[in-house]
Amino acid sequence: MSYRDLFKFTEVMRSLGYHQQISMDSFHSPNFSLVSEILFWLAMRFEPDTNLPQEIETSEQRVYFIRSIVEFFVLKTNVKLNVKKLYQADRNAVGELLKITELLNDALNTKQTYEDEGFTKLEINLTYKANELKTTRELASKITQKGAALFRSLEEESELRPIRDSRVNAALDINEVEQSLKTLIQKTKKETEHTTDLIKNISATEANLDAKIAKRREDLERNSKRLQTLKQVRPAFLEEFEDLESELRNLYQEYITRQRCISYLEHQQEQVAQAELIHIQEQQEMAKKIIENNKQDDDLKLLEEVNNEPYNNQFIENTPDISIKGRVSSAATSRNRGMFGRLSDSETDSDLMLDDEEDSNLMASDGELSTSRAEKLGSIHSDSVDSDN
């Protein structure tokens, strides 16, 4: 045991609040009374109601005390202590005592750390903790069940403790120990025989597996040779199949090319038809405008001729309405012919795809309009002559 461990032990005992000042020279020689007092005080810190023997006058009492203390710490703290070193009660015992004092000191420091962190000021986010509500309830129910089971166990501890102590302190019967050892020996022999049998079976199984592996390897080699032979042999229909495949590939390429050409030509045809339709509509609109302009020009010329005739009175009185109508219709016919003649000279036949029926209907309607206008002009002129007379 080093000087540092002695100093550490004395400081830890002082921090734990031991009522007596421990000197570093106290363990230079065996001091069983001090060691027993420290062990008893540490046991009381873990469980104040513990019932441990305190008589250490004889060697039997000392041995019983050390055994009781060791069993107590094993059960309560799960810390194993060396009985021999504790019984020596010198520097070697300080190392065993440090195991218990460090455990108590760590618990005390952890408690102070939690108090310093200030858990009372911690703000709990209820929204975040809502997802853990189910887990919290399950843990709470488990804690309740474990607490009830622990309470029942503690109630039974008062009854079981004397029985346990009596069993621990009871002297061992040599006959029972011998019988137990014989039983264990027989059981160990049976297990050894069973293990030997398994080893023998493993050897037989290994031999069988080796035989199976060798057989599988032979099958694999034979099948590999057969595969290589089949790869080298060409079927009789393979050449014909390759020729047909190449021919089919060429036909497919030709089919794709023709389909593309047909699609392109159809698209071009649609564009040409649409352009021709637009051109025909434009020519029809132009023809209608020219006809309307010619109608207006002919009406103006007809009015000028009627107003400029020197003998308009006699002509109007002696000339019947039929002559006027015929004149007007002939003028309209000649006008239409001249107009369509100009169109035929300026434009191609393909651009003017007008039907004959439309031409005749248009000319008849123009003649009727011209005749009706001439009759109205004649009647107006006659009214003016009568008013002059």
Automatic annotation (TrEMBL):
It is found in: Cell projection, Cilium. Keywords: Cell projection, Cilium, Cilium biogenesis/degradation, Coiled coil. The lineage of its organism: Eukaryota, Metazoa, Ecdysozoa, Arthropoda, Hexapoda. GO terms for cellular component: cilium; intraciliary transport particle B; microtubule organizing center. It comes from Acyrthosiphon pisum (Pea aphid). Its main location: other. Residues 234-285 form a coiled coil. Residues 346-360 have a biased composition (Acidic residues). It holds the Pfam family Cluap1. Residues 338-389 are annotated as: Disordered. This is Clusterin-associated protein 1.
